[in-house]
Design brief:
By secondary structure, the protein is of the alpha+beta class. The protein is built from twelve helices and 14 strands.
Amino acid sequence: MLFGGMMVDRPDIPHFRKTGRSSLSAARVARLVARYGWQRLFADRGTSLYLGNALAARLLHSLLRQNVELALNTEVAGLINDSGKVTGVTLARVRNGEAGRRDIRAGRGVVLATGGFSQDPQMRARYLPDGAGNLSAACSSITGDGLRLGMLAGGGMCEQNADNAFWTPVSRFTRQDGSQGVFPHTVTDRGKPGVIAVNRSGRRFTNEAQSYHEFVRAMFRGDNDGPCIPAYLICDRRFLWRYGLGAVRPFALSLREYLRGGYLVRGQTIGALALALGIDAEPLAATLARHNEGARNGTDPEFSRGGDAYQRYLGDADHTPNPCVAPIEHPPFYAVAVHPGDLGTAAGLLADENARVLDGAGRPIDNLYACGNDMSSIMNGAYPGPGITLGPALTFGYLAAKHMAG
C-alpha cells in the first residue's frame, strides 16, 4: 500500500496513526521512513514491495534469472492453427517506428493469460449487468485479447457464473498530471469507525464493512427504496484526518485539490452536504441520527456492522467497543461518490483440469491452454476471499506447464 509515496505493509498503517501517542509506533515509523530515504538514494522509487506487488516482482525476477525473453510493446495478431491444432502465435511489434510481424512456433502449446476483459466496453456490455458501467481498477491493457483469440480458435465462454466480475466500489479522481484515476475502496476506509454509505435517497443500504464484492452487489440490488449508483461515503473531519477517504490520504494537510476538482464534497452541516450532493437533507439527517444513536454505544442495529471477524479485522483495533462503528458528529462533513467497479473479470474460456481450452462441445482444443482471468472462474464468479484470482492463476499455469511437458 502506498503511504505518502512509500509502500508499506498493512500492519504498518496503524502505527502511522499512533505516531504521536506511542513511542513504539514512532520508532517503527522512523525506521520505515529512514529505510525509504536510503532506498531513494539508489533508486527512483522505494524498493520495498508488499502483497501483490511483491508477488509480481518475484515472478518477474524468476523470469529474468531464466533469461526468458519479454516481448514488450507487442501484440498477438493471431494464433497459428494447423488442422485444428494450435502450433504458435503471430506477433505484431513496432520497432524504431516500423511495424513488423514475427511467427513464433510452439510445439508444446500456447497459454492464454491476458487478464480477462475488464477494460473492454463491448465485452462488459455483453457479460456484465446493467449499471456496471466501464470503471475498473485493472490496468488499461486488459481488453479481452486472449478471450477473442480463444473464441476464434473454437473455445467456448462460460456464461453461467453467479457474477462475471469481482466487484469493488470505486471513485474517480484526477491525478497531478491531469490524467483520470480510479480508486478502489477495498479495505482502507469503508470498514473503519465513523463512515457510512448512503444511496441517492440519503439512506443506508448495506453493511459498509462487508467485503467490497458484496458491497457492490448491494449497490446493484438498490435496497432501501432508492437508487444506489452512485452511492456516497460520508464521514466527518476527524475520520478524514485519521483514516483518509478514497484518494484522500490520512493526515492530508491540504484538501484544496480534492475539493476544487469535485472529488471530495464538503458541508459545514449535514444539510449543506446534502445540498451539495443533490440529495434530500431530511432523510440524510434522519439516517445520520439513527446511526449516531447506536454508534455512541458501539452498535449498529440496522446492519450489525462489526459483527464478524472479517469486519473487525478491517476496522480500527484501537477503537472500542466496536472497531467498525463510531458516531459522525465533528463538522465539517465530507463525502465521496462511489460507483460499481471491478478488480477483474470472472467470465472466461471453459477449460479442463489441465487448463486446456474446451470447445462448444466440451472437447479440448489441441495445444491451447488458458489460465488467470482468461479461464472461467473456478468459483463460478463467487468471491470467498482475496486472492481468488491469483491462486487459481498460479495453480493452473503450473498444471498447464506440466501437461505441455508431458
